[in-house]
Amino acid sequence: MNILITNDDGIHAPALIPLERELSQLGRVTVVVPDRDQSATSHSLTLHRPLRIHRHDSGRFSIDGTPTDCVLIAYHGLLDHRPDLVVSGINHGPNMGEDVFYSGTVAAAIEGAMQGAPSIAASLAGREPNDFVDASHFVRRLSAEMLRRKFAGKRVLNVNLPPLPWSSILGVQLTRLGTRVYSDALIEKVDPRGRAYYWIGGQDPVWERQPGTDFSAVTEGYISVTPLALDLTDVQAVGEMRQWNLET
């Protein structure tokens, strides 16, 4: 069994070693990650310059590009075997609701699915220091179930674990994406030469309290597992728009 690990937190991410240790119990693990933090890069590709690969030790590589670059390079040149499973993470911070569209963690998992392997995007929904041991153990359990049940095809599971001691976690819930209340702001500053510059900032995300969502599950102390579909087509809108007579 061949497993590809990637992330958007980089080669020095604290979750990398415990996750690699756990998944190596299921098969051959290869790590291909960015050489630095690439958070919020979404599904971007590096097209304007060449990419460089650094081999760290057996089965470990870092790339000076995005998480999506890492998956593409792993599939189309770096690996001599196609992965049976792609695991992206474990991200240090949540990836819930609409934030999945910004997330490099989720984008790497989606790219794995687009290449034909079932994929997991895993995140620890907190910023406090953590050894990621318990979180990695759960990701291994979930990975083993996906492989055992042949959960194949272009499928992505988005996982968010509450930042709690393992003994305090109440269980697992299958959820849908929540809805974020956006409070982002564009902060304008002036540099010493009098030129304006900008930071995209804002407060920590606020979520609508809706039952059955990833945010509600994590807030209540449950692990959230949200199956994501790659087809973004609004089927209801297609039906409604047939009445618009656009052909005439």
UniProtKB/TrEMBL annotation:
<feature type="binding site">
    <location>
        <position position="39"/>
    </location>
    <ligand>
        <name>a divalent metal cation</name>
    </ligand>
</feature>
<dbReference type="InterPro" id="IPR036523">
    <property type="entry name" value="SurE-like_sf"/>
</dbReference>
<keyword id="KW-0547">Nucleotide-binding</keyword>
<comment type="similarity">
    <text>Belongs to the SurE nucleotidase family.</text>
</comment>
<protein>
    <recommendedName>
        <fullName>5'-nucleotidase SurE</fullName>
        <ecNumber>3.1.3.5</ecNumber>
    </recommendedName>
</protein>
<dbReference type="GO" id="GO:0005737">
    <property type="term" value="C:cytoplasm"/>
</dbReference>
<feature type="binding site">
    <location>
        <position position="91"/>
    </location>
    <ligand>
        <name>a divalent metal cation</name>
    </ligand>
</feature>
<feature type="binding site">
    <location>
        <position position="9"/>
    </location>
    <ligand>
        <name>a divalent metal cation</name>
    </ligand>
</feature>
<dbReference type="GO" id="GO:0008253">
    <property type="term" value="F:5'-nucleotidase activity"/>
</dbReference>
<feature type="binding site">
    <location>
        <position position="8"/>
    </location>
    <ligand>
        <name>a divalent metal cation</name>
    </ligand>
</feature>
<feature type="domain" description="Survival protein SurE-like phosphatase/nucleotidase">
    <location>
        <begin position="3"/>
        <end position="183"/>
    </location>
</feature>
<keyword id="KW-0378">Hydrolase</keyword>
<dbReference type="GO" id="GO:0046872">
    <property type="term" value="F:metal ion binding"/>
</dbReference>
<dbReference type="GO" id="GO:0008254">
    <property type="term" value="F:3'-nucleotidase activity"/>
</dbReference>
<dbReference type="Pfam" id="PF01975">
    <property type="entry name" value="SurE"/>
</dbReference>
<dbReference type="GO" id="GO:0000166">
    <property type="term" value="F:nucleotide binding"/>
</dbReference>
<dbReference type="InterPro" id="IPR002828">
    <property type="entry name" value="SurE-like_Pase/nucleotidase"/>
</dbReference>
<comment type="function">
    <text>Nucleotidase that shows phosphatase activity on nucleoside 5'-monophosphates.</text>
</comment>
<dbReference type="InterPro" id="IPR030048">
    <property type="entry name" value="SurE"/>
</dbReference>
<keyword id="KW-0963">Cytoplasm</keyword>
<keyword id="KW-0479">Metal-binding</keyword>
<dbReference type="GO" id="GO:0004309">
    <property type="term" value="F:exopolyphosphatase activity"/>
</dbReference>
